[in-house]
Amino acid sequence: MWKRALCLAVCLFVGTPTNLSAQPYPNKPIRLIVPFTPGGSTDATARIVGEAVSEILGQPVVIENRPGAAATLGIDIVSKSKPDGYTLGVSGVGATAIIPIIDPKLSYNPTRDLDVISGLNSVYGVVVAAPSLKQNDVAELLEFARANPDKVTYSTAGVAGPAHLNFEYLQKLAGVKMLHVPFPGDTPAITAVLTGDVSVAVVATASATPYLTAGKLKALAANGPGTERMKLFPDVRPVQEQTGFNEYDPHTWSVLVSAKGTPSDVITILNKAVNEALSKPEVREKLENLGLRPLTGDVQWVQDFVKKQIAEKEKIIGLVGLKRE
Fold this sequence. Notes:
The chain folds into 2 domains: 166 residues, Bordetella uptake gene, domain 1 (D-Maltodextrin-Binding Protein, domain 2, 3-Layer(aba) Sandwich), CATH 3.40.190.150; 119 residues, D-Maltodextrin-Binding Protein, domain 2 (3-Layer(aba) Sandwich), CATH 3.40.190. About 5% of the residues have low confidence. Helix 2 packs across helix 11 and helix 4 packs across helix 13. The protein has 13 helices and 11 strands.
């Protein structure tokens, strides 16, 4: 009798899930770390896409802002998390493909410590100036800078960010020298132009749009991605079109990452969910209204994309001698 009871108990134990880990992924909320403060384009992307992914997967996506150290603080947290797909991060070009190259003491290595899951966005950029500036496009600005070394100043959202690297590369191609004035974000970089403290600002289109539409700034050039014109300001010519520097590729982007060792099936589930979210018309409209373009592709495509970007940025960093101050 007792043997039958024991057998029944064992069968019931084996046949009944004992914990959530036995259930398909995801079976609990997903933590999404944003390495910037609330309100910027990275944070907005995380919230817009996170909400759509939550609906697709049936689990909450909880945004956690962990700014600091030029976005490397938040990505370091992701790299040291459990590789189970429940802690993800939004990693931009700086934290993925620039700072790890110029800072050998960085606590993580993207290739060694992170799995790239999916693309998220490409950022439309712009070079802006006060309406009173005599130069009306980047070609004229470079001509003036060539005749007046170190007389042109430009602001960006920080040292070793993509805008800084891109504009240093443009100077290298043009054979000119401008002075970089870094600020902790696009808004103060733009303010410096409005107050006359710097000549031009190299910023995200989303940050400059209110000032451009109000006539407080003028756009000298579209500054990426690639040679695309800005959807919000289609008449503004790209840098490459003005200068002929086709090798200049100012592409600022964000991708979704997790700790190295995340199961491949989990990565595939997340990649498909993000791509489905980015294909929704309402999601695309929200992003495009912020000057952002959805960055889509399967797992292999986005991993190859990041590898190529790291190699390209390493080459440019070597050419311009960029250092983390």
